[in-house]
Design brief:
The complex is a heterodimer of chains A (271) and B (322).
Chain A (H helix, E strand, L loop, with lengths): L17 H32 L9 H13 L3 H32 L1 H16 L2 H12 L3 H25 L3 H9 L4 H38 L5 H10 L4 H30 L3
Helix pairs in contact in A: 2-10, 3-4, 3-6, 3-8, 3-9, 5-6, 5-8, 6-8, 8-9, 8-10, 9-10
Chain B lengths: L29 E10 L5 E11 L4 E5 L6 H8 L7 E6 L2 E2 L7 E4 L11 H11 L4 H14 L15 H12 L6 E5 L7 H18 L2 E6 L2 H7 L2 E5 L6 E6 L14 H15 L4 H9 L35
Parallel strand pairs in B: 3-8, 3-9, 6-7, 7-8
Antiparallel strand pairs in B: 1-2, 1-4, 4-5, 9-10
Helix pairs in contact in B: 2-3, 2-4, 6-7
Classes of the chains: A mainly alpha (271), B alpha/beta (322).
Chain lengths: 271, 322
């Protein structure tokens, strides 16, 4: 980047107002177009196949059911429950994973002691573990948190470990020359330097957290979108409601992913 | 003086008169006494062989020698980053036993933290030392003024030119008011003209801070221009082969470089370097080059995670057998 006309402030305030809006529009157009194409294709499949709405409801039916579920108060308690499971589970899982990732990166012994369990835990499908976890931790929030934590843990821990191991050793030498202690090196050099990798792991983790919450709810629970899907399918025979719950779930997943991307841009965008 | 090589590069801007300069602490004398070092690892490398050197307080030493001869390693021993096998290093009589706050180290690359602004990079050593926020701010402001970068305090390294980044790293090295400043080929990445300007600036910094300076360089004119004494080192294992006094008056000017005295000094330095620039030796040196920042023989913590090879939890990793 040598030779760049470096003027302070030029990095941030380059695009105020209209250009920025134009860029947003440039992003929004393709997204809107692909959404529209999806809905049209869906409607076409419904029309051509002639499937009844308890097998494949059309987009309009689902949209109506979605609005109704929100207005008559069916949706919110389930959404709230699932959101709490996702966010809390993600927070716990990512925090533990960060600590363990740092430990794994710095200690070969820790890596050798722990890696068999980590790999085994990851290789065993959470779906298969879920009934056991519900058996132990009950039908309530704790079992969902355990499952979500488990599923979030691995990608974040591995990303942290790889990120910290690939920190430029010259930066570490620099820190050492200023007599940085071990903790100072971790907190002020290694973790910040590995932040792009760590956030990448968290981006994967947050979408997995959604899966974890639903798997937990399916294995046993009284509230949550997973439960709602089960109720709609098994006892209400309300397929449009099931689709509405699915759409809601996708919405949560996409939103969380986008929030993660924004956080990422905010924290490491201007490196 | 923001940009070193951009089209609109400004030349020497006078330091702002308002630059508050810390009360100069006299530089420390350095005594290097029979320092030897052998790296033992997969390949044993005898790097330093009984190096002796005495540096007076406030003196500027230019350290010159063939590639990979151990100049940088000697600097790391002085900074306490690498312990010597034998001999001792003392600053004003107090031995150096580990990373030392009396020493400021400037590396070949700026080694700035990309996520911090220039000011935050300069504050880094002060944070580590546990200074109060107010003290950090005042000191960082002084230092940025000293290197003429006050207006860039909030700029991230990625928006700065290579020379400007190196200036930030010099300010950082001066953060804790070291009594000795060690520079490891600090301007080797800069173009020739910028480099001359930076040398002048370094001398001005030296006059204002009063630190003892030891600068490693590959350039004979640079060594002569900066130094009171040019110390020539042999190929590995390194020892001092010549110690040439530079009787140029100070303050020095770039035009001094054209004088007859400098030419004869340069010839003298070159004469001592001549038997060390043999191709055969150079090839042998290249084969056992020491990577910056990594002590040979230490187990690589990073070797398995080159960018793009996420080899995690790999029980078959070769280095584990070492």
């Amino acid at each position: 980047m040598s030779g760049a006309q470096a003027v302070p402030g030029s990095t941030t305030a380059e695009a105020p107002g209209p250009p920025r809006r134009r860029r947003l529009l440039g992003v929004a157009w393709p997204v809107a177009a692909s959404l529209a194409a999806f809905v049209i294709a869906w409607q076409l499949v419904v029309l051509v196949s002639g499937l009844q709405s308890f097998i494949l409801p059309g987009p309009l039916t689902v949209a109506q059911r979605f609005v109704k579920a929100w207005t008559d108060g069916t949706m919110w308690p389930h959404v709230a429950q699932t959101l709490v499971e996702i966010l809390l589970g993600f927070a716990i899982g990512a925090t533990i994973a960060l600590a363990v990732g740092v430990l794994l990166a710095r200690s070969r012994l820790a890596e050798r002691l722990l890696s068999p369990y980590l790999v085994a835990a990851q290789a065993t499908p959470v779906l298969a573990l879920a009934p056991l976890i519900v058996l132990w931790f009950g039908n309530g929030l704790p079992s969902k948190l355990v499952i979500t934590t488990l599923i979030v843990f691995f990608p974040v821990a591995v990303a942290t470990m790889v990120g910290i191991r690939s920190v430029d050793p010259r930066l570490l030498e620099m820190a050492r020359s200023f007599r940085a202690t071990g903790w100072q090196t971790i907190a002020r050099v290694e973790v910040p330097a590995a932040l792009p990798a760590i956030l990448g792991g968290m981006r994967v983790g947050v979408t997995l957290a959604v899966i974890g919450a639903i798997v937990g709810e399916w294995a046993g629970g009284e509230k949550g979108l997973g439960v709602l899907i089960n109720i709609a399918r098994a006892s209400l025979f309300d397929t449009p409601l099931m689709f509405a719950a699915l759409a809601q779930l996708a919405l949560i997943g996409v939103t969380l992913y986008l929030v993660m991307v924004l956080i990422e841009r905010r924290l490491v965008g201007d490196r | 003086m923001c940009d070193d090589d951009g089209p609109g590069a400004r030349t020497e801007a006078p330091l702002p008169a308002s630059a508050r300069v810390p009360a100069p602490r006299p530089g420390a004398g350095i005594r290097i006494d029979g320092v030897s070092l052998t790296f033992r690892g997969a390949r044993t490398t005898h790097v330093l062989d009984a190096v002796d050197l005495d540096v007076a307080p406030n003196e500027v030493i230019g350290l010159i020698g063939p590639n990979g001869c151990g100049k940088s390693t000697l600097l790391r021993v002085l900074a306490g980053l690498v312990p010597a096998d034998g001999g001792r290093v003392a600053l004003d009589g107090d031995p150096v036993t580990g990373p030392d706050e009396r020493v400021g180290l400037v590396f070949q690359e700026p080694r700035l933290l990309a996520w911090r602004t220039a000011e935050e990079n300069v504050r880094f050593p002060m944070e580590l030392a546990g200074w109060s926020g107010e003290r950090q701010r005042a000191r960082a402001d002084d230092l940025l003024g000293l290197v003429g970068l006050r207006e860039f305090a909030r700029a991230k390294p990625s928006t700065l030119s290579g020379g400007t980044r190196q200036r930030v790293s010099i300010a950082r090295a001066l953060a804790l008011e070291p009594r000795v400043l060690l520079l490891d080929e600090p301007f080797s990445a800069l173009d020739a003209l910028t480099r001359e300007r930076f040398n002048l600036e370094l001398l001005r910094l030296w006059e204002r801070t009063g630190t003892t300076i030891l600068v490693v360089t590959h350039s004979i004119p640079e060594a002569i221009f900066l130094a009171d004494r040019v110390v020539v080192m042999s190929p590995r294992p390194a020892h001092v082969v010549a110690d040439i006094r530079v009787e140029l008056p100070r303050p020095r000017r770039l035009t001094d470089l054209d004088s007859a005295l400098v030419s004869s000094l340069a010839a003298d330095v070159r004469a001592h370097l001549v038997d060390t620039t043999d191709d055969r030796i150079a090839m042998a040196e290249a084969a056992t080059a020491v990577t910056a920042g990594v002590r040979p023989g230490t187990r690589a913590r990073h070797a398995d995670t080159e960018p793009g090879t996420p080899a995690w939890f790999d029980p078959f990793r070769p280095e584990d057998e070492a």
